[in-house]
Design goal:
Elements lengths: L2 H23 L7 H6 L3 H29 L4 H23 L3 H24 L9
Length: about 130
C-alpha cells in the first residue's frame, strides 16, 4: 500500500484523535454526548470544531488520493501531497486549539491546495491512465 493511501487511514483517525483530549478533560455524559459537547468552551470547544472540520475535509482528500492512485499519478508527488495534507491538518488543529484564526485559515488553505494538487496529478495520470491496446 502506498504512503498516500496510508495517509487516508491517518485522515480517518484524525477526527477521533483531535476530540479525545477535550472529551477526556470534560465531563461528557454518553447518554447525551452532543448536548454536553455543545456546552464546552475555550480550547475544548475549538477542538470539537476542528474535529468536525476533519470530517468535512475527509471526503475530498480520500477521493483525491484514490483517484490519483487509480489514474497512475506520479507516486512520489502523490505521497508528498498526501503527507503535506496530513501535516497541514495537524497544524490546523494546533492553530485552532491555540485560538489563532488567521493562521488556522492559512493552514486550511494549504491543505486544500494539497487536495487540488492530488486532483491535478490524477488529471495528468501516468502509464496506468493510458488506454489499453
Amino acid at each position: 500500500m502506498s504512503f498516500a493511501l496510508w495517509m487516508v487511514l491517518a485522515a480517518i483517525l484524525l477526527p477521533y484523535l483531535t476530540i479525545m483530549p477535550a472529551k477526556v478533560t470534560s465531563r461528557i455524559d454518553n447518554h447525551a454526548p452532543r448536548r454536553d459537547m455543545e456546552r464546552m468552551t475555550g480550547w475544548q470547544q475549538r477542538l470539537d470544531w476542528a474535529h468536525r472540520n476533519h470530517f468535512e475535509t475527509f471526503p475530498a482528500f480520500a477521493a483525491a488520493v484514490i483517484i490519483a492512485q487509480m489514474r497512475g499519478a506520479p507516486q512520489g508527488w502523490a505521497d508528498i501531497l498526501a503527507g503535506l495534507f496530513i501535516l497541514a491538518r495537524l497544524a490546523y488543529t494546533a492553530a485552532y486549539a491555540a485560538d489563532r484564526p488567521s493562521l488556522r485559515s492559512n493552514i486550511w488553505s494549504l491543505g486544500f491546495l494539497c487536495v487540488l494538487g492530488l486532483f491535478a496529478l490524477a488529471a495528468i495520470g501516468g502509464p496506468a491512465a493510458a488506454p489499453a491496446g
